[in-house]
Amino acid sequence: MIAKQSQLKTILLVAERDGQRCAGPVLIAGIAVGVGVIQLSTGTLKESSPLSLQMLSLLVLELMGPLLVSVLGMALLLPRWIDRVASTGHRAWRRSVPGAALIGIVLMLMFFSASLLAGILITPRSELGIELFALLAKTSFVELLRSLLRSAGFLAALCAWCQWRADGPLRQGHRKTYIVSNLLMEGLMMGIGLKLIWFLVTKILPMNELIR
Amino acid sequence: MTLSPRQQGHRKDRLLFLGSGLLLVVFVLVGFAKAQRWGTRFVDIYIKASDVNGLNHGEDIRIAGIVAGQVGTMHLDDQGDVKVTLKIEENKAHLIGPSSKASLAKEGLIGEPYLVITADPRPREQAQEIQGRTIGYDEPINIDALLKELASSQQLLNLTLRNTTALTAENGSISTAFHSTRRLAESLQKEVTAAAPVVRESIASVAKDVHAVSQSTEAVEQDTRSFIQETQPLVVESLKDADQLTRSSQELIDILRHLFGSWLEPVNGGGEDVLEKQSSMPQEEQPIPRQE
């Protein structure tokens, strides 16, 4: 019991430290996406504010949110994950993977909030409260939960993959910069692969009904 | 045990990310709860529509402009109709009755769509009675059909305009008719100008003739009247004399009949017949009425 509590504390500590590293870039990315999408939609496409915000919400939750957050998180945390493998060995995943999952949830929520708030602030109507509640009324909470879980799953999977793939080269004495470079490329491909798998599973295969 | 400034800083930052994340979760949950009315008790009613274009899950339902619920799930049934669940707030459900009707509306021209339900208020105690009922739905105008009708109307209008343009053109029928009418009017005016003095003279001479005839007729009338006045006493006298003469003659005939009646009887003994005939005679020999 004490060991489990200690492990939970360690996981929370790892999540806190890793999260602090990622929060800033993710928030900035969220703001950039929100502003960019709304500007494009209301400006170039000349769509109405509510429709633009709804599109932004769907874009963040359904399309780019989990992938962007997990890839960004991986890019920012990869050196730490490799360090932990170097210091702790192949057991490092026990702390890093749950921590990454937790970070994935919080980061996705931050990304979602930042993009929506930035988007709402830049719409021509700019009535923050009214537009925010109108948008939340139309956003499916289940969809948000699914997106948070997907983000957690993606980041945890990337963490597990990177730590597993880093173990061998580290033992062989490869340089960390070389390993980080390789794993960035692999992680990026894996993130896109996971997105494709998710799309296949939910939209094309008959499992769609089961998952929904 | 005292902590170094670095350790104190670490401890302060220990829950910065997870704490702010937790706070964010709370905010998002509260936002969703408020926006999606979590915890509000709803009464489910239904509408059936053949076309639910423009109607979306989560859209507002309004009664008299006030939000009273939201559009729920939609199911396509075996007849091809869509059964839409309308989630009405329990405290406003009594405003909906069997004669309420739903229709799709929009804020402004390009604003947010929402569903309007006409009120059919009932006592608050009967609010739950509407649960599970289906109310009527006025489907919005089919824009495609409307545009097709508009296109056909436009074609007809174009045709009419073309015909009108052809009629009113410089060499069109209306213009030609106007020209002809003008020419006719001009020639008529010339004829009238030429014929007017002659007609005036004729009318004057006819008037003179009529006047003369009238005068001669009056003179004749005067003559006739004076002649009648002059001859009237003579004629009356003559008539009186004639009447007297007739009476005298009658009396004379009667006297003669009395005197010579037996001598005048017929040979074949038909004296009675003669007498009968004579008795029937006075009808023909009535005295001549006296004329005034």
Q: Concise description?
A:
The complex is a heterodimer of chains A (212) and B (292). By secondary structure, chain A is mainly alpha-helical. Chain A contains seven helices and no strands.
Summary tags:
heterodimer; A: 212 residues; mainly alpha; 7 helices; 0% strand; elongated; B: 292 residues; alpha/beta; seven-stranded mixed barrel; 5 helices; 16% strand
Topology:
The complex is a heterodimer of chains A (212) and B (292).
Chain A (H helix, E strand, L loop, with lengths): L1 H43 L4 H40 L4 H30 L5 H11 L2 H31 L4 H29 L2 H5 L1
Helix pairs in contact in A: 1-2, 1-3, 2-3, 2-4, 2-5, 2-6, 3-5, 5-6
Chain B lengths: L4 H9 L2 H20 L6 E8 L10 E4 L2 E11 L5 E8 L11 E6 L6 E5 L16 E5 L4 H26 L4 H88 L10 H10 L12
Parallel strand pairs in B: 1-7, 2-6, 5-7
Antiparallel strand pairs in B: 1-4, 2-3, 3-4, 5-6
